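Quarterly update from the structural biology core.
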Amino acid sequence: IAAAADIALVIDRNGIVTDLSVGGLELADEGFEAWLGRPWADTVTPETREKIDALLRDGQNGSSRWRQVNHMTSGGEQLPVLYHVVP
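Predicted structure, tokenized:
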């Protein structure tokens, strides 16, 4: 998954980011390592937190549908990311 995705996350049952992989040099310096140990919902913009809740809920029941959420970059820009959760 990490080789095929720009961002791959491992999330525990409580929604905490336990591991991550960031592909591409343009994303490497955006501070994603700071997500480790934090709730996934805390890494996105407030208006997209509901989508994280839906992704986690759907992922527990099987596979979720794709949803776009926004993260803030280290430069203060919004970075839209398309996510899909698999158990």
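The two ends are 13 Å apart (CA to CA).
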